[in-house]
Amino acid sequence: MALVVLGLTLVVLGLLVWSGALGWFGRLPGDLRWDNGRTRVFVPITSMLLVSVVLSLLAWIVRSLR
Questions:
Q1: d(Cα 65, Cα 2) in Å, to the nearest integer?
Q2: How many H helices and E strands in the chain?
Q3: 47 near 36, Cβ under 8 Å?
């Protein structure tokens, strides 16, 4: 059952990325970008904090259901 839910979640996320609904991700305030000639540096601080919070909440929900 868990594999089915995980698979459906990945399909939904894939469809969101493909449709452009997650175009804001990686462009949040706090995501640092430096462009200097041929060098580009991207540090997604805020985006990774958001991912961490979402994954922590999902882990907490899964643990509380057991």
A1: 13
A2: 2, 2
A3: no
* pLDDT classification of 32: cutoffs 50, 70, 90: very high
d(CA 16, CA 10): 10
Residue 40 one-letter amino acid: R
Q: Bridge partners of 40? A: 35
CA-based nearest residue to 33, from 41, 25, 45 = 41
Instruction: State the DSSP code for 33.
Output: E
Q: Which of 19, 23, 41 is nearest to 32 (CA)?
A: 41
The one-letter code for the residue type at 32 is: L
